[in-house]
Specification:
With about 300 residues, this protein is of the alpha+beta class. It is built from 13 helices and eight strands.
Length: about 300
């Protein structure tokens, strides 16, 4: 949950999640829709699907003694990469493995004077080699050391100008502090250029005035398995649908714009009329209130419901 999210924001989600799924058996027994609904608001929903799949695999394996014994084996489970695998081994099984996250990268970058580990693979390799050396240090309590590094990066060795060097217990031996370079280390991560899209969100109704929703395909690169108003994406922001639809029977209004990762959606809501005929698979009609309670809606769809 804490990946791509602020820890303070995650705590409430975590507590609700643990109340709903107090054991791994409870989680493994849940439906995908239940899990996605519980995850709602955290984004990156493939993480929730992978957690469910991994829970089902672990329950099938049996007791924790039968679970993976190394980070290499943990990485065979859905959605578990090097960081998560090492975190599990370090924190849950007290193994001599150290997870590498953004906080640790920042601390090592400043302390050892490694300028660009976020963008340069050679520089990142330097951090990984240093971590490997600490992993081989038998005098360390590796789980506690890993937590200390993460907490240090989260509370003192903060990004850029928020860094609090004055309170740092290792400032006297830190390269960046000694050279007054802490705000410049590490170099900022290069961001992808924003792709602009114009979105037409289509509002179809039935005789009861319920709205039509569709479930995004599991193969979608974004928001797979979430529910939305049927929509069309047009490249760029040059087209103005308010002008293009003028004189037609469709009602159209400008909705709330939306950003997700490196996409910026200029959003329009189109009253498309009454739906006639059979419903395709993974489509349903629902009132706004029921959809909000029961369906795992995309954030853009939640915004659009205020206009419907």
């Amino acid at each position: 949950m804490s990946q791509q999210s602020q820890m303070e924001r995650v705590v409430a989600f975590y507590l609700r999640w643990m109340k709903q799924f107090p054991t791994i058996v409870d989680l493994a027994s849940a439906s995908e829709d239940e899990v996605l609904k519980a995850w709602e608001g955290l984004g990156y929903y493939s993480r929730a699907r992978n957690i469910l799949l991994s829970a089902q695999i672990l329950v099938t394996l049996g007791a924790p003694e039968e679970w993976p014994k190394s980070s290499v084996e943990w990485k065979l489970l859905p959605g578990i990469g090097d960081y998560t695998a090492k975190a599990i081994m370090s924190f849950a099984f007290h193994s001599a493995e150290l997870p590498l996250d953004g906080n640790v990268l920042r601390v090592f970058s400043r302390y050892f004077g490694i300028e660009d580990p976020l963008n340069n693979s050679t520089e990142r390799k330097k951090v990984e080699e240093l971590l490997n050396q600490y992993e081989k240090d038998s005098s360390l309590k590796h789980g506690a050391f890993a937590e200390a590094l993460m907490d240090h990066g989260a509370t003192l060795c903060l990004p850029a100008t928020r860094v609090l060097c004055e309170g740092c217990p290792v400032a006297s031996s830190c390269f960046a502090f000694s050279n007054k370079l802490a705000p410049q280390y590490p170099k900022a991560k290069k961001r992808k250029e924003t792709e602009k899209l114009t979105t037409l969100s289509l509002v179809y109704r039935n005789k009861e005035m319920e709205l039509l929703f569709r479930k995004r395909p599991e193969t979608s690169l974004q928001l797979a398995g979430q529910w939305e108003l049927p929509s069309l994406n047009l490249p760029g922001h040059e087209i103005n649908p308010l002008e293009a639809f003028k004189g037609n029977d469709f009602g159209i209004q400008e909705g709330e714009n939306h950003r997700i990762t490196n996409y910026f959606y200029k959003n329009y809501i189109v009253e498309a009329g009454q739906w006639v005929g059979a419903l395709p698979a993974d489509h349903c009609f629902s009132s706004v209130s029921e959809a909000s309670k029961k369906l795992n809606l995309t954030t853009l769809t939640r915004k659009n419901l205020f206009f419907c």
